[in-house]
């Protein structure tokens, strides 16, 4: 595991990359919650996503959006942040292209980060999506899941920021199943082990 700075559209992006002990299955990029509400790549749900995916054999990357931590630039309401994700993903793909050019891409995100990942789908064409309490407002109407082979959406039935009925209404026209964790609110306090096991069970199928 090591820290690196990636040249982003608005300046340097503070990033952390970790490689699995065995030959990697693919590349995974994890996005954090809202920058204006304290969201960073050190968020505990992001940490759980990052480590779960690493344990499953992926090269895992997380980073701070523009204007967060040591990343340069300013908040851009999801638009510039989508460009950040695209740049980070393509940079890492290029870095490992010599032995991972045919391996799958997984995009993961929590809250705002999940919404931004939905915006990035049509530009990055991932094989898998793992989204925890994604922000539908951030995602807008750009999302199309038709080319994504696997999509896992995890939500808490006590989510006070993106209520469960909101995510169900959004998922219905896309015919996307939602894994609901009873008793979990938006930040999954006390539910991180369940979150981790849900991700592992999904990715092993």
From TrEMBL:
Coiled coil: none annotated. Residues 36-139 form the Serine aminopeptidase S33 domain. Transmembrane segments: none annotated. InterPro entries: AB_hydrolase_fold, Hydrolase_4. Gene3D superfamilies: alpha/beta hydrolase (3.40.50.1820). This is Serine aminopeptidase S33 domain-containing protein. It comes from Nitrosomonas marina.
